[in-house]
Structure formats: structure tokens, C-alpha cells
Amino acid sequence: MTLLDFLDMDGYYLYVWLSFGLAIVVMLALVNGPMKRKKQLLKQLGRKKRRGQRT
After folding, report:
1. Which region, left, alpha or beta, applies to residue 9 given φ > 0 means left and ψ of -120 to 50 means alpha?
2. Is the CB of residue 46 less than 8 Å from the CB of residue 39?
3. Per-residue confidence at 55, pLDDT binned at 50, 70, 90?
4. DSSP single-letter state for residue 10
5. How far apart are CA 38 and CA 15, in angstroms?
6. Angstrom distance (rounded) from CA 49 to CA 52
7. Is the pLDDT of residue 33 over 90?
8. What confidence score (pLDDT) does residue 7 get?
């Protein structure tokens, strides 16, 4: 078996590699979403804290 045979996946390469790609995109979104939300929440808390210190 050569590398090209492996990458071809007996003719199912399109389905196999698209599913791998989609899985990677979904996993990245599942990691990135909460990280962005955390950053937003920390900014909001910082603004509220500064507003509280001014009064």
C-alpha cells in the first residue's frame, strides 16, 4: 500500500476527508466560542468594577 492508496481511501476520499475537515472545524468552534465569551465577560466585569470605583 502506497501513500497515495491510503489518501485515496478506495475511492471514498472525498467523504472521508470532508468528514475529517468538518470535525476539525466543529471542534475548533467548540473551543473558540467559550474562550471568546470568557473574554467578553471579563471586559464587562472590568467596566463594571471601574464604574463602581468612580462613584
Report:
1. left
2. no
3. low
4. G
5. 35
6. 5
7. yes
8. 84
